[in-house]
Amino acid sequence: xxxxxxxxxxxxxxxxxxxxxxxxxxxxxxxxxxxxxxxxxxxxxxxxxxxxxxxxxxxxxxxxxxxxxxxxxxxxxxxxxxxxxxxxxxxxxxxxxxxxxxxxxxxxxxxxxxxxxxxxxxxxxxxxxxxxxxxxxxxxxxxxxxxxx
Length: 149
Hints:
mainly beta, four-stranded antiparallel beta sheet, 3 helices, 12% helix, 42% strand, elongated
């Protein structure tokens, strides 16, 4: 048996195939993982969730986005943070024309239960989105869109 590792079919043996077989993995999978790519290219972003006695605090890193680009929804115990940015550059000079478009969208969802939905607050400064989710023992479950201060 091959140590119960999925078998990859190949047409021949190359140095890359021998390397892959020896180390039991493909080095290119590790080299081109999402941590090497900018935030707008991965479709995701980094976030930390902290808890204290009265609330949960979500801190999401969204550098390069403005407050208007970010949308936060809380529906059925699901907190969704998404940001979309459209950037267009049109530059014309004497001997050249430069036109570029960039579109980036990122989104993450978190399951949060026992939250006072009416008291959720969010603020955004210096590329860091901070959402405060007060705990609720009574089970208020109305969904809503959260405004960013």
